[in-house]
Amino acid sequence: MPSIKNHLSASFHTQEGRCLYCDQPMWLADPTAFAARWGLSRRQAARHQATAEHLRPKSDGGRDVAANIAAACSYCNHHRHPRGRATPALSPAKYRAHVQRRRARKGWHGFWPLVDVAGGGTPPRPSSVVQL
Ligand SMILES: [Zn+2]
Q1: For the HNH domain, which residue ranges apply (predicted)?
Q2: d(CA 2, ligand 1 centre) in Å
Q3: pLDDT of residue 119
Q4: Is the Cβ–Cβ distance between 60 and 88 less than 8 Å?
Q5: Phi, psi of 14 (to 5 degrees)
Q6: CATH class assigned to 4-104
Q7: Contact 86, 27 (CB under 8 A)
Q8: How far apart are CA 66 and CA 120, in angstroms?
Q9: How many angstroms separate the CA atoms of 56 and 122, rounded?
Q10: Neighbour-count burial of 111, counting CB atoms closer than 10 A to its CB (0-12 exposed, 13-18 middle, 19+ buried)
């Protein structure tokens, strides 16, 4: 039976390494190379770690199955599911809309300029392949 790590890895590749919510690039295994590629500090890069996002939260009965796992950056994942919060998490679609609005006002992470130092230019436009 595939583990949650397998699901995360599969989602990461399906999503072309982009966060489900903020569309920012993420890393799976090598923060140092990621930081170098995007010109970030290690601390900044930490926010871009790919994490297994439960579309239906575990607290709401969501399971560790492929259909319920997407890849989201550490920052977005932790803000959707803050510890100790009494109110339920927003749905993935509503949360993505929230994140995109915040990003438009530069009120979300990624306000540092993400320029692909290694590849040159700016990040490509994300392709959203996950149905919310
Ligand atoms: Zn994100």
Answers
A1: 48-83
A2: 24
A3: 57
A4: yes
A5: -60, -40
A6: mainly alpha
A7: no
A8: 34
A9: 32
A10: exposed
Joined together, the tokens standing for residue 126 give 């994300």
Distance, CA 61 to ligand 1 centroid (Å)? 23
Give the tens place of pLDDT for each residue, 5-53. 999 999 999 998 999 999 889 999 999 999 988 888 999 899 999 999 9
Q: Which amino acid is at 44?
A: Q
**pLDDT tens across 56-89, in order?**
988 889 999 999 999 999 999 999 987 776 777 8
CB atoms within 5 A of ion ligand 1 belong to 19, 21-22, 73, 76
* Least confident range of 49-53, 59-63, 98-102, 126-130: 126-130
- Per-residue pLDDT at 93 exceeds 80: yes
Distance from Cα 1 to the centre of ligand 1, integer Å? 28
3-state class (DSSP) for residue 131: coil
Round to whole Å and give the CA distance between 29 and 27: 6
Complete DSSP assignment for 77-105? HHHHS-TT--SPPPPHHHHHHHHHHHHHT
